[in-house]
């Protein structure tokens, strides 16, 4: 982890030697002036550029929508993933579940939606992520193994929700847990698979629609049942099982992009989380490298927003 941070620091240092970098330039607006992009900071400073690359993280989803709308760039709203994060002692998980460090299970439930596991943090912890006026529960790796593992159980239906609706729902779940993110816990020992599913479902909050909780129950049955994944079928069952929430993903817009991460507006590019396809530092770095390979040779000037 430290070596990775050193590598990123080295890349930044190299960029400083070859590129003009404006620090503490918080972008408020991106407009057009006579065929040139005008990037305006919250302090009123302006940068003019013939090309702009937007590479905000997920936390910039509101600003991204505003910029795209102002520039008349086409995008769609993602159908968000909504769920909970389940934390147990690592020793309680079966090897069939841990077929890799970040096991990926995904199921299509006809007429109902999709369920999947997401971002398993082996030996990690659950952390709060700021989301509007509230927080959602995310997984993080610890410098020292905690002995516990958390994994998100996510539901996706065909409904889309605006940022306001999602943020309001998230804040209501925060309030019900007294801002701890912990929705509840129960002992794992001596529980049948069916009772495990029941206990877990009892702690799952209702989503913006009833479909989300139905998907999460069906997903839990697939994961826990011995006829399915058999998540807890091997070894001694230990406890407790802690359920945190809400877990939210895919809440940022999906931009209509072509080759080289180009938007429908000439000279405007969107990469990383902001592209709306996936998330995380690996795909963000890959998107940046891919954009650079296909575009940098053609550009004279680049402004980063």
Overview of the structural elements:
- It contains 6 helices and 16 strands.
- The protein has 305 residues and is an alpha+beta fold.
- β1 and β2 form a beta hairpin.
- The protein is elongated and about 70 Å long.
* Ends distance: 27 Å
Write the H/E string, N to C: HEEEEHEEEEEEEHEHHEEEHE
Strand order, largest beta sheet: 7-8-11-6-13-12
Q: Looking at the structure, what is the overall shape?
A: elongated
List the helices and strands and how they pair.
Layout: H1 2-18, E1 27-33, E2 36-41, E3 46-49, E4 52-54, H2 61-70, E5 75-76, E6 81-89, E7 106-109, E8 113-121, E9 125-131, E10 134-140, E11 148-156, H3 163-176, E12 182-186, H4 193-203, H5 210-224, E13 241-249, E14 254-255, E15 268-270, H6 281-295, E16 303-304
Parallel strand pairs: 4-15, 4-16
Antiparallel strand pairs: 1-2, 2-3, 5-14, 6-11, 6-13, 7-8, 8-11, 9-10, 12-13
Helix pairs in contact: 4-5
Q: What would you say about this model in short?
A:
The protein is 27% helix and 29% strand. By secondary structure, it is of the alpha+beta class. The longest helix is centred in the first third of the chain and has 17 residues, at 2-18.
Give me some keywords for this one.
27% helix; 305 residues; alpha+beta
């Amino acid at each position: 982890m430290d070596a990775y941070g050193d590598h990123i620091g080295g890349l930044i240092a190299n960029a400083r030697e070859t590129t003009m970098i404006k620090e503490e330039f918080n972008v408020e607006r991106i407009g057009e002036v006579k065929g040139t992009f005008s990037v305006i900071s919250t302090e009123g400073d302006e940068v003019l550029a013939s090309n702009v690359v937007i590479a905000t993280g997920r936390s910039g989803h509101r600003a991204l929508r505003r910029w795209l709308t102002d520039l008349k760039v086409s995008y769609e709203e993602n159908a968000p993933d909504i769920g909970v994060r389940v934390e147990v002692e690592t020793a309680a998980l079966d090897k069939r579940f841990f077929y890799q460090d970040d096991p990926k299970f995904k199921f299509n439930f006809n007429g109902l939606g999709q369920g999947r596991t997401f971002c398993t943090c082996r030996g990690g912890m659950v952390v709060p992520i700021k989301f509007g006026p509230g927080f959602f529960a995310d997984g993080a790796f610890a410098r020292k193994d905690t002995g516990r593992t958390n994994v998100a159980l996510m539901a996706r239906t065909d409904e889309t929700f605006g940022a306001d609706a999602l943020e309001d729902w998230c804040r209501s779940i925060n309030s019900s847990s007294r801002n701890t993110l912990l929705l509840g816990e129960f002992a794992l020992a001596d529980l049948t698979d069916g009772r495990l599913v029941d206990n877990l479902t009892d702690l799952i909050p209702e989503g913006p629609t009833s479909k989300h909780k139905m998907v999460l129950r069906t997903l839990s049955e697939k994961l826990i049942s011995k006829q399915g994944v058999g998540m807890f079928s091997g070894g001694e069952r230990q406890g407790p099982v802690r359920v945190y929430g809400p877990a939210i993903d895919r809440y940022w817009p999906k931009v209509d992009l072509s080759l080289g991460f180009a938007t429908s507006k000439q000279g405007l590019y969107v990469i990383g989380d902001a592209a709306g396809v996936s998330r995380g530092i690996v795909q963000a770095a890959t998107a940046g490298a891919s954009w650079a390979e296909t575009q940098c040779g053609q550009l004279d000037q680049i402004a980063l927003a």
